[in-house]
């Protein structure tokens, strides 16, 4: 059994062990995705971020922490 969640009317998470709640709504996993240091697709993600100007080094208004 895995911990699952769904959102209520206020946007807060309601945790359950069910895959589908009584209203018929499917739940989402409350566990983060697995991390692998051997990331096969990082090169592709960086390429796409460069192409669309989404890298942090490409942002104009960077706020330095603590200032």
TrEMBL record:
GO MF entries: snoRNA binding; telomerase RNA binding
Keyword Protein transport listed: no
Membrane-traversing stretches: none
Key word Nucleus present: yes
Subcellular location, record wording: Nucleus, Nucleolus
Domain of life: Eukaryota
Chief location of this protein within or outside the cell: nucleus
A Pfam family reported for this protein in Swiss-Prot or TrEMBL: Nop10p
Annotated GO CC locations: box H/ACA snoRNP complex
Keywords from the UniProt entry: Nucleus, Ribonucleoprotein, Ribosome biogenesis, rRNA processing
InterPro entries from the UniProt entry: H/ACA_rnp_Nop10, H/ACA_rnp_Nop10_sf
GO terms for biological process, alphabetical: positive regulation of telomerase RNA localization to Cajal body; rRNA pseudouridine synthesis; snRNA pseudouridine synthesis
Family listed: Belongs to the NOP10 family.
PANTHER family attached to this UniProt entry: H_ACA RIBONUCLEOPROTEIN COMPLEX SUBUNIT 3, RIBOSOME BIOGENESIS PROTEIN NOP10
Protein name per its UniProtKB record: H/ACA ribonucleoprotein complex subunit NOP10
Organism per entry: Pseudocercospora fuligena
Organism placement in taxonomy: Eukaryota, Fungi, Dikarya, Ascomycota, Pezizomycotina
């Amino acid at each position: 059994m895995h911990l699952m969640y769904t959102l209520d009317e206020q946007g807060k998470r309601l945790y359950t062990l069910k895959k589908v709640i009584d209203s018929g709504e499917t739940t989402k996993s409350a566990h983060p995705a697995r991390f692998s240091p051997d990331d096969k697709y990082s090169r592709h993600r960086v390429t796409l971020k460069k192409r669309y100007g989404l890298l942090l080094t490409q942002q104009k208004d960077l706020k330095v922490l603590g200032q």
